[in-house]
Specification:
Elements (H helix, E strand, L loop, with lengths): L8 H7 L5 E6 L5 H16 L4 E6 L6 H11 L5 E3 L4 E3 L5 E6 L16 E5 L8 H7 L11 E6 L6 H8 L9 E8 L4 E12 L5 H6 L2 H7 L3 H7 L17 H4 E2 L9 E8 L7 E8 L4 E8 L14 H15 L3 E4 L15 H7 L2 E4 L4 H13 L9 E4 L3 H6 L5 E2 L2 E5 L6 H10 L2 H4 L1 H4 L26
Parallel strand pairs: 1-7, 1-9, 2-5, 2-6, 6-7, 10-16, 11-14, 13-16, 14-15
Antiparallel strand pairs: 3-4, 4-5, 8-9, 11-12, 12-13, 17-18
Helix pairs in contact: 1-2, 2-3, 10-11, 12-14
Length: 467
């Protein structure tokens, strides 16, 4: 019997994975599309008429190459492609549908449908996870076929952040994770789905390298911001990102003790309710080097840019509990925290002042703040390390900072529609007097004009300066 298709080693490894959701890819040329088609070959042969697969792309035009490749692979199986219905029909009754989802609303046309394998090819083309999550509800089989969701992707694209959050940050590759999704009160047990990220690189596709040996050279010749994601599969850098100087191996460090005598600790906050609030814990030394040693973030693990809607009283108590242990009293905060949204209620900052924080209005100059962040990431201290580094325990900072993009209408600002809350808090801290004049605020030092202001005051410690 002739071989219809033989998976390459990495593809064969991924095909053995029984996770409910598989994310396959990482670098260019890793054989992602063939992997998706190969899963359907296996399904058609194993399940016959009970097999009903579907492959999505963002637009119909993007399906052209999949159709061509499908005809090559499925033709020897006797499959016929109906270009009107966009579906491959196999002699044993199995089907593979090809479709597009250009907007989140398009998934509604699949209400009531069911598929044994749902593939999103180039998953990063979807800006949100809505289509991916919704179609999971269509992944079922009355015949008992084991059903899976598969996403193929490279770093970058409008969906980079949510994919990175879903299966890259905090997860190890090639490991099947059980993700708790609901608690059953009757059985008193959690319900889980399983998910696995399986990276692939060009070297995992020896057939392509054999037929097109120059392709590796082409990838290696790309500028760094393209070479690292497309050849190395690096999820911390991609074309168009705002902070292309970010390097996980340089800017993320293991926690170490911060001696009180040589480091001044303070907090910086960006407030939010329906969107996440962010409090970053910063420490600065005499040389002006800043370490972010902690974070308090109002977003649940596994979610993207969704606030926990906690009140100011609850958040201030949470922050103050940490502050007391760490010897912190200063809080740099977004000037908007002083604004009342409802005349009947105090401004958000009041809860933090009442509990004991010395609250200082942040410098809200977005252009200058962006440049400050760039400078801290680029410049080195006397040991050759960046002037701004983050403890590896700051999960949300590591997740969101490198994923930010420029504002399309203003290249001197980040896109505020993205998850920029920790960035905002961090830039407030880097623009503050503590970071810019560390010699005045470290032990034994006192800023001119600071005498006389008690705890909780938001008056500037230096005259004519807005903090």
């Amino acid at each position: 019997m002739s071989v219809l298709w033989e998976p390459q080693p990495r593809q064969a490894y991924a095909m053995k994975c029984d996770a409910d959701q598989i994310i396959y890819g990482g670098a260019a040329g890793g054989g992602k599309t063939d992997f998706a088609l190969g899963l359907n070959i296996r399904g058609v042969m194993d399940w016959g008429k009970d097999w009903a697969g579907i492959i999505f792309r963002k637009t119909y035009k993007q399906l052209t190459e999949i159709i061509k490749r499908g005809k090559v692979l499925f033709g020897p199986m006797g499959a016929v492609y109906n270009k009107t219905e966009h579906i491959f029909r196999f002699p044993n009754g199995a089907t593979l549908e090809l479709s597009n989802l250009e907007s989140d609303d398009d998934v509604e046309k699949y209400q009531g449908q069911q598929y044994t394998l749902i593939v999103f090819d180039e998953l990063g083309n979807w800006a949100t996870d809505y289509c991916w999550i919704y179609m999971f509800s269509r992944c079922r089989s009355p015949a008992g076929v084991y059903c899976q969701m598969v996403g193929t992707c490279n770093p970058g694209g409008v969906g980079h952040a949510w994919i990175k959050n879903m299966c890259i940050d905090g997860f190890k590759p090639d490991i099947k994770y059980l993700i708790p999704v609901a608690y059953d009160k009757e059985t008193k047990q959690w319900e889980y789905i399983s998910r696995c990220f399986i990276p692939s690189r060009l070297e995992d596709n020896p057939m392509l390298l054999k037929k097109n040996p120059k392709y590796k050279t082409f990838l290696l010749s790309l500028p760094e911001h393209l070479r690292r994601p497309l050849y190395e599969g690096d999820w911390d850098v991609y074309a168009g990102q705002m902070f292309d100087e970010w390097r996980r191996e340089r800017h993320v460090i293991k926690p170490f003790a911060l001696p009180q005598g040589s480091w001044r600790r303070f907090y910086a906050m960006d407030w939010g309710s329906s969107k996440p609030y962010a409090i970053v814990k910063l420490a600065v030394n005499y040389d002006g080097k800043v370490i972010q040693y902690g974070e308090i973030y109002g977003c649940r693990r596994g979610e993207v840019n969704k606030g926990t809607k906690e009140g100011t009283a609850e958040v201030s108590r949470k922050a103050w509990a940490d502050a007391v242990d760490e010897g912190v009293t200063e809080m740099i905060a977004d000037p908007a925290c002083w604004n009342k949204t409802d005349p009947s209620y105090p401004a958000p900052i009041q809860a933090f002042k009442d509990i004991g924080f010395h609250c200082v209005r942040a410098n809200h100059d977005r252009k200058a703040g962006l440049q400050q962040m760039h400078d801290y990431l680029k410049q080195n201290d006397e040991n050759g390390q960046p002037m701004f580094q983050v403890f590896n325990t700051c999960y949300h900072t590591i997740r969101t900072l490198p994923a930010l993009l420029p504002n399309q209408n203003n290249s001197e600002d980040v896109d505020s529609k993205l998850e920029d809350h920790i960035y905002d808090a961090a830039r407030y801290g880097l623009m503050s007097r503590y970071a810019n004049h560390p010699d005045r605020y470290l032990p034994g030092k006192q800023a001119a004009g600071s005498a006389g202001y008690g705890n909780g005051s938001d008056e500037p410690l230096l005259s004519q300066e807005i903090w």
